[in-house]
């Protein structure tokens, strides 16, 4: 649980870099900032609940906030890659899968996972659906990036680090959701929590690199 708290607090690293590099943030990085803000709000409730637990007070369920973060985060990422992908067919694909994803969100309503603040249930569909869709879209963007060959130093390109972080985070979460979720209900709950927390820390680090290198976009624009 302590490791989980550390992973939630690690969102403050990209928050600090957003504040430090705010004058370099273009539209796409501002969209990514929206994702960080949504994550910060979710983690605020998570850390608050953890503090109550550690101090011996009654904590509260936080799955409601995690479930909504899964939904809102997906739409923000979809908007980001809608802008990053140049091909009209991929943009059409993103619009289509957003409609399909909205249908999956509606299927969550009967269980109360997104309507009951005190729910103890994960979403049944949105975690897996968002992971699969994001992985497809990110791979399409990386393919576009390699085809265009417009980036001189890819290790200093913000969207490369965003894409790497999303591949690890959603790829890992897809594995967790498909193979470890049922085991987590029995004897493997600690393993599930550690993997999820480690993926979060890694993701927060990679998007921090995206904001760190945001000035490279500004310099490239000036050179052109």
Automatic annotation (TrEMBL):
<feature type="transmembrane region" description="Helical">
    <location>
        <begin position="31"/>
        <end position="53"/>
    </location>
</feature>
<feature type="transmembrane region" description="Helical">
    <location>
        <begin position="158"/>
        <end position="180"/>
    </location>
</feature>
<protein>
    <submittedName>
        <fullName>Uncharacterized protein</fullName>
    </submittedName>
</protein>
<keyword id="KW-0812">Transmembrane</keyword>
<keyword id="KW-1133">Transmembrane helix</keyword>
<feature type="transmembrane region" description="Helical">
    <location>
        <begin position="192"/>
        <end position="213"/>
    </location>
</feature>
<feature type="transmembrane region" description="Helical">
    <location>
        <begin position="129"/>
        <end position="146"/>
    </location>
</feature>
<feature type="transmembrane region" description="Helical">
    <location>
        <begin position="65"/>
        <end position="82"/>
    </location>
</feature>
<feature type="transmembrane region" description="Helical">
    <location>
        <begin position="89"/>
        <end position="109"/>
    </location>
</feature>
<keyword id="KW-0472">Membrane</keyword>
